[in-house]
Specification:
The complex is a heterodimer.
Chain A: E1 12-19, E2 22-29, E3 32-36, E4 38-41, H1 58-68, E5 84-88, H2 99-105, E6 121-125, H3 128-131, E7 136-138, E8 143-145, H4 148-157, E9 162-164, H5 176-196, E10 203-209, H6 213-227, H7 229-234, E11 238-242, H8 251-267, E12 275-277, H9 284-290, E13 295-298, H10 300-306, E14 309-311, E15 317-319, H11 336-342, H12 349-376, H13 381-389, H14 395-408
Parallel strand pairs in A: 4-13, 5-6, 6-9, 9-10, 10-11, 11-12, 12-13
Antiparallel strand pairs in A: 1-2, 2-3, 7-8, 14-15
Helix pairs in contact in A: 1-12, 5-6, 10-12, 11-12, 12-13
Chain B: H1 11-20, H2 25-38, E1 43-51, E2 54-61, H3 68-75, E3 105-112, E4 115-122, H4 124-129, E5 136-142, E6 149-157, H5 170-180, E7 198-203, E8 214-216, E9 240-251, E10 257-267, H6 269-273, H7 281-284, E11 286-291, E12 294-298, E13 312-317, H8 336-354, H9 356-390, H10 399-411, E14 418-423, E15 431-435, E16 438-447, H11 448-453, E17 463-468, H12 472-481, E18 487-491, E19 496-501, E20 503-511
Parallel strand pairs in B: 1-7, 11-13, 16-17, 17-20
Antiparallel strand pairs in B: 1-2, 2-6, 3-4, 3-6, 4-5, 7-8, 9-10, 10-13, 11-12, 14-15, 15-16, 18-19, 19-20
Classes of the chains: A alpha/beta, B alpha+beta.
Amino acid sequence: MGFQQKQHGNNGFEIANQAGAARTGTLQVGDTELETPNLFPVVNFYAGGTSSSLYGGGIHRTMKEFMNGDEVINGGDYSEYFDGVMTSVASLTDYGITKERYEEYIDTPIKERDLFDFDGVLFVDSGGFKFLGDKTLDGSDFEVDVDQRAIIDIQRKLGADLVLNLDRPIEPDDDYETRVQKARMTAQNVDQFLELTNRQKQTRYLTLHGYNYSMLNTFLTEIEKVIGKDRVHREFDGVALGSLVPLKDNKGKLITAVSDCREVLNDWGFDDLPLHILGISSSAIPLLAAVGADTFDSSSYLHAAINGKYHTSLYNTEPLDDVDFSNCDCPVCSDDKLVNWMKGDAEYQKDKLGAVSMHNLIIQKEEIRRVREAINKSGTDGLIEYFEQSLSRHKSMQQHAHRVVNDSLGGYF
Amino acid sequence: MSTTKTPQVNEVNEFLEIASDFEDPLEVIRESLSNSYDAGATEVEITIRDRPIGSEIVIEDNGEGMDYADLESFFDLGNSTKRDPSSDAIGYKGHGTKIFYKSEEVLVNTSKEGTNLRAQMEQPWEKLNNRVMPEYEVRERSVKEGNSGTHIRITGFKSGRGFSPSSLTYNKIEHYLKWKTLAGSTAHYFTDDYHEMDVYITLGDEIDDTQGTLKLNNKLEFPDEQIEPGEGNFPESRMCKHYPPRELTVETDDGDTATIEIVGMIGGKDARNELPTYGKHSAQFGIWLAKDYIKVERVNEVISHDNEFLHFFFVANCQDIELSANREKIRNKSSAIYQAIKEELSHYLSKIASDPWFKDYLNQRRKAKLSRRAKSQQSSVEDREKQIHDRERFVPSNDAEVVLGLERSNRNGVLPEIVVEDYDPDVEVNALVRQDGSLYASSIHHKLTDHFGADKPLEAVDKIICWSYGDPDELSELERHGYHGGDIAFDLNAGRIEYQNGRKHNIHIVSVEQRF
């Protein structure tokens, strides 16, 4: 079995350099190119994202003002940090909206809305992790049954560039039978997903779920049983590994899951496909990139800010009140107005925390840029040196940094 | 009115103080080797004899010799000509040679650039103790150019208690020199200034007559590498991996920098035994901090606690550590630079400890241990097989075997059939058994007395199932004293316990042995 290079469309993934299992590359989605490894910030387009919510939307609204470079955030150009963003169809479940609002929201593709000046890659996930329980998208006066067809409909209406099938994430306590059952349900969705989507128009990612080689192998076997070997190998532009959020604080298990995933993909002949890691970001990024992850999505930049945490690096935060903003030369911290916001001199809390979020995102994006540069240096020395200067200097990360250096980069000695 | 005063130093006391720090005659050798090396010697001969007035130590080298200034700094305190701490010279504090003052006589005969100087100091130790500054007399004569070198004779050296030369052996001296002096130097791994120096040690026959002169070099050398495990019961014990010389740079928050030059190995017991020993393995392995490439003190705390330091042997040289006069201790432990050195070492060692080879080595150890355990299990299986052959019939030796015995009696058709439906050895009522269609809460034990030994209550139990009754006297005592505050009577013939604690309760006793 071998992955066949795609013959059509502008979509594709090209590997530029490799350092051990780590790699840099270019993900082409339509007219947009994304350097990998890269990070898709999670953006909530609904909150503060319709003309009728112009004065609401909280921190999400401020983030979109940064995305647009609006005057209210002093007109800076932050578009480079939004070269790709992720949004979830499930974000609607957070708001008890009316049917009218729902239809208005999905009425126009996001990139075509006057409200946003966004032209990066729009990754719309399927929300599988949120619909797991009730299988409905609840509004205040309506319900949408969530099935693969409904999800694709929303993804399409939002103008997604990159889409995922509706999946059934596993949990760490699931037994074998439960996992297989979920894989079969996902496989049914995948079957429908392939029929209902058009690869010419959207980049399609297959979701995988498993914490080690055997689990992932079982999962793929179940998918293959339903949709056939041929289609498994021909129809996808990428793979997204899910179900890792419950393991987010256990970096050892995350590394195992991702490196085993890479191994399974290699053994299945999917080695040329980009690998996205769903829901995991921050300090795990360099470790997982080192074992072969290509893209990530992150809302941690927002959550940190909401909890009053200002990132001083990918691995460290400081309480907002203790921060000396002059130590950072990012565009947010170099803008007096935004610094004043972060110091608390803002009319709305959303502006204070929105500016912190933007700063946090910049820290994450800059770090992943450094990871790319390290991989691009010849051999594995660049990436080893990167770890030497970064994660391996942190006691809690040290063993994980050493592990990926030993397992994926040829070791120190 | 104001006056300016200069604090005074009592020079005699200073000399006494410094010289008193040294007790071991071997420290004399350590200092001499360093001096000879600093003088560029390629050979040094040391002779030690045990004389009635104390030990006699003669040190002779082919170094560049001393001139007047050198001789002065040899005898002066704190006046080393080797002033530049950044040079590769080992002594620069001017303390080391003061150890020679603890003697009856110091005689230095040295030739440098065609001039021979002969310096003699008599009774230095006695004079110092009488608070008199000892003097030395120097005589000069011309010699042929090119015949440089130094000959030092210390007569009547006062060893401290327990450091008498008579306790020396060639073996002891070799290990000491390799462990604590430049004979075990790591300089050859790092610096271009290093030069080889052969060391010859001769002990008087009255000290050790088991061998002739001992010859050593001035290099620490590790046992040969053996990456793969060996054969036998302890396959890991000769495994050994070298970690090549590395330079680590550290910087404090204040911007002070230091360089650490580290080299080392990890090895099993047999590999470690090939190194010179200096006491027990637990006293000598781990991470050594060194100055002038000579080991000073261990910093085993830089190895994370989940790794046994015993497998590690690393020497980390750093010229920025400061030593006590006798070179036994590091003085600047509270400095920022020392802390930074430790942090960097801790980081470096974490990389070593993560090396897959080291993991494999530990794994080999573990596997060997398991395999030794499996062998002992095997022999225990054999023992048990023999017991089965030897006995005439089934005899249980624990509670679980009583359950098996009961089932076996059922199979043999013994009535009434008593079937164990549920067995949980961890709870007080450990079994539920079925007899004639009804379930009974039961306590299954090897012996009846075990139920009482375990202090289990009787109220919730319908049956006690046992192989045998145990010690009848124990049962009688229970009848005499009661159990848990109630009266108890055993009617073994009827297979019944009558228990009265508030209300009356009969418990059925099943002896499995009787069902066979």
